[in-house]
Amino acid sequence: MTAVPPSTPPAKPPKPAARPDSVSLWRYLKLFRQDILSAQPARLYRAWMAEFKTPFFRSFMINDPDLIDIVLKKRPGDFPKSNRVGEGLRPLLGNSVFLTNGETWERQRRIIDPAFEGGRLKESFPAMLAAAEAAALRLKASADGTPLEIETVTSHIAADVIFRTLFSIPIEHRVAAEVFVRFRAYQQAQPILNLAAFVPLPRWMPRIYPKGTRSNAAHIRRLIAGLTEARLAEIDAGTAPPDLATKIMTTPDPETGVGFETAEMVDQVAIFFLAGHETSASALGWALYLLASYPEWQDRVAREALDHGTEAFSAITRLRITRDVYRETLRLYPPVPMMVREAGCPETFRDRPVPRGSQIVLSPWHLQRHERVWERPDEFDPSRWQTDAGKACARTAYMPFSAGPRVCTGAGFAMVEGVLILAHLLRRYRVELVPNKVPQPVAHLTVRSKNGIWLRLTPR
Ligand code: HEM
Questions:
Q1: What is the DSSP string of 319-365?
Q2: How far is CA 118 from CA 110, 255, 416, in A?
């Protein structure tokens, strides 16, 4: 293999170009369909609040930390999750915790949360480590410097982590492999961008989804139902492994004493798989790209992993540099770039009236690159997390996992997973940029690269 000269690290990691300040509604909808990040004007990186008026709905993007605090933490009940975004995901996710509101949502969280508590993460760790080791072994064959599309690799790893931690099966298992492939097809059809995402349709009106969306969703749900029913039988026989599925299926609601029915469990498994693997795959892909772009940080991560090892759960807390790299990745490329809530009653925000039913957009993407909050907002600098300024911003202007009672269920899980996988892979391999292959961030379900993320892998 001839040595390839490394390409020059970018001054700043790639950021989508913003659209002009004023465009027609139709142009906006067209841009929005292509990519919700480049469909936004540059002023959102400086504004505390911005209003968008359309004939169908009014929406307000809020970047003011005090307002975000009200919506997510102080009065979350007055700002339920918007049904608009859920429309596209409902065929797959049914009545999952990601889409519900009110009493139903509260009951679901009471049953799910104990499985993800900090103390229980340790129990999921051996399965995560097994997935990390399987990935390191799989990559051996590709670690010869040939350009490799890394998002495909990280999707595979993150899906493996979810199946191993949830159902104690590896991604090679027949059902796991089929769910993985069908999820990708579902997502590529962009169901989230169906008409109902823009226009409030009455409940009785039939929804139109891209071709194959419904049948694919039904197929995935049948596969998941098979896994769930088999697990129920194992629980009854006393032979179930002590993984997340068993924990959730044997936890009764502490208030009513009733647990999930099989159908409701299928809804939850679907969201764990989707929310849990898409997001981590996105973050890991960008993290590897950033480490290839900034080799001095990559060397520090590798050295730290060699010093502390990655085999013990306790070692993960000592991987401080790796954690700061992952945090900085989640700041620059938050996998969930925007979240939408709905004003349940009329509000006044920054002296402006916000009518009932307005869409309230919370944007980790804009907040975490806000020019009036962050120093050098578009630069990759993991050391900022150890400074007073960085720590202050972390409290008020950083929400890759959202915040408040509706915070991501898997936040703690994802931070262990991300740090472990990065450290475990970088102990073995070096990642390098491929000249002239700059990824282009776009947001569909999560923030991905339009043209993939191409890297070279070689043994360290
Ligand atoms: C880097 C990885 C991850 C990121 C950045 C992330 C981010 C988020 C965000 C921003 C939300 C809130 C969405 C909203 O309110 O509209 C969310 C919700 C959720 N996430 Fe994650 N997530 C990650 C990993 C995971 C994992 C590993 C799991 C489970 C295994 C998970 C399960 C969930 C669930 C069930 C919800 C819905 C919570 C609710 O609405 O009450 N996530 N996630």
A1: -HHHHHHHHHHHHHS-SS--EEEE-SS-EEETTEEE-TT-EEEE-HH
A2: 15, 22, 10
Name the β-bridge partners of 457. 431
Model's pTM, two decimal places? 0.93
Structure tokens that stand for 429 in this block = 């391999």
CB 135 within 8 A of CB 428: no
Is the CB of residue 280 below 6 angstroms from any atom belonging to ligand 1?
Answer: yes
Query: Domains in the chain, start-ordered, CATH in brackets?
Result: 25-459 (1.10.630.10)
216 in Cβ contact with 209 (< 8 Å) = no
The stretches in the chain having pLDDT less than 70 are 1-10, 85-87, 189-212
Rounded Cα gap, residues 135 and 129, in angstroms: 10
Q: What tokens were used for 141?
A: 């064959």
Residue 319 and residue 322: Cα distance in Å, rounded? 5
**Spacing, Cα 324 to ligand 1 middle (Å):** 20
CB of 269 shorter than 6 A to ligand 1 = no
